[in-house]
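note to self: dont lose this again. the chain is below, predicted strucutre after it. 264 aa total, dont forget to put it in the shared folder this time
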Amino acid sequence: MRDPLAEPSDLIRSVSRALRVLESVGRAPRGLTVKQIARRCELTVATTYHLVRTLAYEGYVIRREDGTYIVGLEIADRYRELVSAFRGPPAVGEALRRAALDSGYTHYLGRFVGGRIAVTASAEGARSPFVDDMSPGFDEGGHATALGKALLATLTPDQRARYLRDYGMRQFTPATLTTPEALEADLAAGERRGMQLEMGQFRQGLACASVLVTADRDIERRLVLACALPAAEMLTSARVVRAKLTAAARNVAEALSAGESATA
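---
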């Protein structure tokens, strides 16, 4: 949701409208006609037609034979570029894949992006339940995922309170923590444990653990590593998970440092 009070004075409205058109088309997998797009974006049909023609020319939407528009392949190209930029040096991706292969659990990297907690890379593990939401770019549920908790734990209490006010504490499952007080107690327990943890708070039957990879004064450079596994396995394997996750975090940190040194 865009904040109208934060609208820049030099906003280029044609660009803003084009992005609204693109978002509307992206939310409609069956496609939309120009009239449908105009209605959803609250634009005139003439304006929408010009915007859609431009987006189609650039490859960001595709016109089908029935006259509807769907997202174009240029979107996939931009997403691949986003994933590559998020992941960092190739060695980081390799360390993440190795952790997933060795443990059998899906592993994730996360950091603050534009002030929001986001998944920035992932590697699938055969033993973990598939979670389609947790793909690179996912930026919701910071209070409900171990990845998000590990990043929230790096903030001051005032910074955490502000983050929760800005982005809320949506209830994903009956076990989701929905008050700042409950979250503060949970984060403190995670600090004592040496690993942030959640069980069934984001998805029922799923558990997730996370540790810090790199700390930095700049919050956007803080990086965490998380893994997901069936909740029943976490109940019996928490210490093993923590040991393996901590070792994997060291490997990721070393790969990140080596990659940054090579490009310096």
